[in-house]
Amino acid sequence: MLRVTPDDPKLWCALGDVTGDTSHYEAAWARSGRRSARAQRSLARAALKRKDWGAAAGHFELALALSPLYPDAWFSLGYCYLRTDREAKARQAFTKLTQLEPDHGEGWANLAALWLQAGQWQQALSASEQAVKHKRESWQAWENYAAAALRAGALTAAARGVQQVLQLSEGRRLPAPLLAGLVDGIEGARRALEVRKAAAAAAAVAAGEERGEGEREAADGRPQQNGQQQAEEQQQEQQEQQKQQQQQQQQEQQQQDEEGEEMEAPGELLGLLRMAQALPGDTPRRAGGPPAAAAATSAESDERQLAQAAAAAGAALKAAANAPACGPEVWGLLGRWYALQGEATSAKEALLKQVRALQGSPFAREPAAFAEMAAASAQMADAYLALVAVGQGGARDLSAARMHLRGVLRQAEEAFGGGEAHEKLQGKLREVEAAEAEFKAKAAAAAGSS
């Protein structure tokens, strides 16, 4: 056949496929007048087998410049760019792939990972949403989704992603950094909400005081008038009120007429108008301050969203605590979550499980292990103190905290005595001892008075 049509690039490529000789692909490229995308794709695949990522990328670029409608080639090009540390070009390649093949789950997953590396959280979240839509059984895709959602501040979505990772991996994949990020996010959101609520309350008080001051100034500055002047002014006020009532009636009638006309518009247009009317800034304002109703609604909405996020994070943490890969860190995070929810007893129990899990670690010898044990022990002691503060604990709890702290300090004295972590734990022990002495004194006083 080549004797008959020696310039047919397809035949040269077929010969290369049969023999494995890449020179036949080069011949196909040359005889096609540098127009055979097939030849360049074959050269690219050969370079991939050799793990020559740079050469493969060059061949794919030439092939796609001639024939761009090959999703697999775009995917391979993106992979080659990744292997040669060209992340921006890799994003472009995977973006083109997803445009050609919108249900390509791997392409979306890689694009999401690249946006995460670039710190573009919203783009990463959008790509991750598409990735999990088309790769619902991939825990890796869900982990990227959770990471992107967490970075974008979508805490409820992040918690859902973590739960999917745990479920799909049967608890063997434990994304501890994401769990920690969830608890940190809930804590941060709660602090921010309290600050906003306090600021709104202060603004409302200031606005009320300003209005009251203005009314007093107006009353104090009104000149004394005789009866005739007062009668004339009352008459003028009545006339002005009548005029305002007439104008208001006319406006209401005009508004009714306009509303009647609006109802004849298409439903899509009506929906758009309603959304536009609900945009921030269109709420009627009082002079000198933000709309009180809008501020209250915003605070209530934020509080509802935070409650939903906290519940979702709690579900993820409880699932992690029951997973085969559960470790001490998970119990510590769960304890923090319980404390945020005001569940002092559950917080203490979870933190107690954390320090028990750390008992087998070499904390008496290794600095990192001791730092972890010291932090967990201090946190557990705080949980005991909180339990007593809310009236749910007693002398036995404070005694248990004191004995644990003394035991840890004694075991670590030789290796870490005098160090910063050791001294901080000593301070926590003194705090517990003081609380225990105070509790016993109050109990004795109460017993004596009875």
UniProtKB/TrEMBL annotation:
It comes from the Eukaryota. Residues 255-265 have a biased composition (Acidic residues). TPR repeats lie at residues 71-104. PROSITE patterns: TPR (PS50005). Residues 221-254, 280-299 have a biased composition (Low complexity). Residues 208-220 have a biased composition (Basic and acidic residues). Keywords: Repeat, TPR repeat. Pfam families: TPR_16. This is Putative Tetratricopeptide repeat like protein 27.
